Amino acid sequence: MTKVSFFVSVMFLVFHGTVVNANGIGQYDRKVEVNYTFDGKTYHFIGESRLNGFIFNQNGNQTVTIATLDWPPYVGRELCNLGWSLQLAVAILTAKDYRVEVYFYPWVRAVKLVETGKIDILFPEYFIEDHAPSDIFLDKKRRELLVQSNQFIGGNISLFKRKSDPFTLDNGLESLTGKVIGVVRGYQNTPEFDAMMDQGLISTVEAIDDAQLLRLLLAGRVDLIIGDGKVFNYVIDHSGFDEKTKQAINQTLMPLKPVLKYNALYFAISLNYQGWKPLLTDINLALIAFDLSGEMTRIYEQGSQCAGSNNSH
After folding, report:
1. Residue 292: how many CB atoms within 10 A of its CB?
2. d(CA 287, CA 278)
3. Strand pairing of 203-207 and 224-228?
4. How large is the greatest C-alpha to C-alpha distance in the chain, in angstroms?
5. Whether residue 166 has a cis bond before it, omega within 30° of 0
6. CA 133 to chain centre
7. Cβ-based neighbours of 253, under 8 Å, separated by 6 or more
8. Can you give the pTM of this predicted structure?
9. pLDDT of the chain along its 313 residues, tens only?
10. DSSP secondary structure letters along the chain
């Protein structure tokens, strides 16, 4: 394959605030500029803000819609540059001349919209096992509804406990018998953990997001929580906890070893999307090219250094 040179930069032009409609859905009054060079040619797009999301490459050859979530530091409306993973997604799709519509939802709703075919791509998603059941269609497996791209950079999934708890994972996941574990509703974690959860072998309490998970552990309502440490660290610093609560969480939270799994990230395409095969091919070829050129690493590293919200950018 011919080496492809990429340069991608994404920056906010302006942030004026948030307007909330009667349904409580935010309209972000700002524009996002996307610039990159693909195969020797430079591209420039301005992502226009729309109700609950953004649109890039208005005159693209074909429209694709993405359902995503606020999941910092990977992706989020309050992140500078919308987060590194969304920068990567927009660059890959517009490089293939797609008109890209990105919409933000709670994760459970995002999953439902893509599994029912109302939106084309679920992003970013973990690997979906063949046996993973759909929460939307009780008679379906998720693989009957979605097809996944090649992988890209992800993060480690771990169990976390209170430091005062002597619990260990010496016997692996069998050690979880009798424990109550906090999980975010609709999230996949690891194949082994999720299979035990689906079979009712472990007791869980569902939270609406990672911030609530942390509160459940701090309050002693669960014995353990499961998630990505990078996400928890961001939530502690940026989710509106007062200083006393931050200090309490930092003094309480402890990851268990070993790490359960490194979870790479994927595009998950609805099989209801008529052009899913060429779309999957386009995404995979672009992911390969970004990886080989080093541009994927550059986007990740640059985005990871851009800590905090876009207000501080």
Report:
1. 14
2. 14
3. unpaired
4. 59
5. no
6. 20
7. 160, 162, 163, 214, 217, 232, 236
8. 0.85
9. 333 433 444 433 333 333 333 333 444 556 777 777 677 777 788 888 888 889 999 999 999 999 999 999 999 888 877 889 998 999 999 999 999 999 999 999 999 999 999 999 999 999 999 989 999 999 999 999 999 999 999 999 999 999 999 999 998 999 999 999 999 998 989 999 999 998 899 999 999 999 999 999 999 999 999 999 999 999 998 878 889 989 989 999 999 999 999 999 999 999 999 999 999 999 999 999 989 888 888 888 877 776 554 443 3
10. -----EEEEEEEEEEEEEEE-TTS-EEEEEEEEEEEEETTEEEEEEEEEEBTEEEE-TT-SEEEEEEE--BTTTB-TTBGGG-HHHHHHHHHHHHTTEEEEEEE--HHHHHHHHHTTSSSEEEEEPPPPTTPBPSSSTT-BGGGTEEE---EEEEEEEEEEETT-----TTGGGGGTT-EEEEETT----HHHHHHHHTT-SEEEEESSHHHHHHHHHTTS-SEEEEEHHHHHHHHHHS---HHHHHHHHHHEEE-SS--EEEEEEEEEETTSTTHHHHHHHHHHHHHHHHHHTHHHHHHHHHHHS-SBGGG-
The amino acid at residue 88 is L
